[in-house]
Backbone:
């Protein structure tokens, strides 16, 4: 079944209501509501690692709810709208998968086709057709013909921040970028698509890599949380993981309804940290007046953190040590104009082992 964009009646109604709403509010308010959520999945299976899997039954529950309450668009359309700052439907959403597992086709695709929901798969070309649990290029061609988007997840799912012995930053970045370009070339050759979307394996990136992504005209996607908008860093867009421990519908509904925090500046620019200590307070400065900063809350490793706020600034202080590997601070604050919806900001951190390697 080809994914033609014939939206269910509920989604058309949502879109028309969104247009009327955008016409009726100020330009600042409109900018604040012009956000979308990107969901992230890996496996759709009962027999794969639980931490990155969602069962077919749970996935069907997710997609049924999404089809009833959200306007799902191809990821490429959402990115184009954000780049041009053009209106999106209220509660716009994109659905993505990482790693190109075969169970996306066998278990996930029929459900997505049933609800006519477009989606994007980030693949590692050197793994395609070579691992039994991976899609084949023939299957990818079939899915492409049915409207599925395929994008870059590097050639071989490497830890992009790891360096070879004696490798300086310039040589590291050149090696890593060749990997990205070779993957993009294979995807373009096999699918006819070159979206120049890069999902960082394990969500890991640093300031230098993000800058390279922007310079080369790519869009980068991480694995930290939050909605996306014109305020987002296009070299490191957040996505909400929706499998494993994050598959619970009660908490996922809150995340699906989230809004992109209108961040105009942040004191922390490099998520790769040389040590486990982050003693200085960190601040984000916001635009507009719809964020209920007086009710903001920030969390790290499940614990609430001390925060300070004023009219436009949220400051958090991290007292715990950063663990080796991946961690993040999540901050939320309610919307004044849209009761029950929360602005969401996520700051990831990446700390290597003593030998410079990263855990999977």
Residues:
């Amino acid at each position: 079944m080809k994914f033609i964009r014939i939206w269910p009646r509920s989604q058309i109604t949502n879109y028309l209501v969104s247009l009327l709403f955008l016409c009726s509010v100020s330009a600042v308010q409109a900018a604040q509501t012009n956000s979308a959520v990107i969901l992230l999945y890996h496996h759709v299976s009962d027999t794969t690692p639980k931490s990155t899997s969602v069962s077919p039954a749970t996935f069907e529950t997710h997609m049924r709810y999404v089809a009833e309450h959200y306007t799902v668009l191809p990821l490429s359309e959402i990115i184009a709208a954000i780049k041009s700052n053009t209106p999106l439907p209220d509660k716009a959403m994109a659905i993505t998968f990482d790693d190109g597992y075969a169970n996306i086709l066998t278990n996930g695709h029929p459900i997505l086709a049933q609800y006519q929901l477009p989606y994007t798969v980030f693949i590692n070309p050197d793994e395609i057709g070579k691992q039994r649990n991976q899609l084949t290029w023939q299957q990818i061609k079939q899915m492409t013909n049915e409207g599925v988007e395929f994008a870059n997840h590097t050639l071989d799912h490497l830890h992009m921040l790891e360096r070879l012995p004696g490798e300086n930053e310039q040589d590291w970045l050149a090696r890593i970028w060749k990997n990205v370009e070779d993957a993009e070339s294979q995807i373009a050759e096999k699918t006819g698509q070159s979206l120049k979307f890069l999902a960082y394996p394990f969500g890991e990136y640093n300031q230098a890599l993000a800058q390279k992504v922007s310079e080369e005209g790519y869009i980068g996607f991480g694995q930290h949380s939050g909605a996306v908008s014109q305020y987002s860093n296009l070299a490191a867009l957040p996505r909400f993981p929706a499998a494993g421990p994050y598959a619970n519908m009660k908490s996922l509904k809150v995340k699906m309804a989230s809004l992109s925090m209108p961040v105009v500046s942040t004191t922390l620019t490099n998520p790769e940290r040389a040590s486990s200590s982050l003693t200085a307070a960190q601040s984000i400065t916001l635009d507009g007046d719809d964020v209920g900063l007086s009710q903001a809350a920030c969390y790290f490793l499940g614990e609430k953190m001390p925060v300070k706020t004023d009219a436009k600034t949220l400051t958090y202080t991290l007292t715990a040590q950063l663990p080796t590997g991946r961690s993040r601070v999540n901050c939320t604050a309610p919307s004044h104009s849209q009761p029950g919806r929360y602005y969401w900001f996520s700051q990831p951190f990446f700390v290597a082992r003593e030998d410079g390697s990263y855990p999977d």
Q: What stands out?
A: The chain has two domains: 9-258, 265-351. Residues 324 and 351 are 5 Å apart (CA to CA). Residues 265-351 form a domain with the Immunoglobulin-like fold (CATH 2.60.40.1220). The chain has a mean pLDDT of 92.
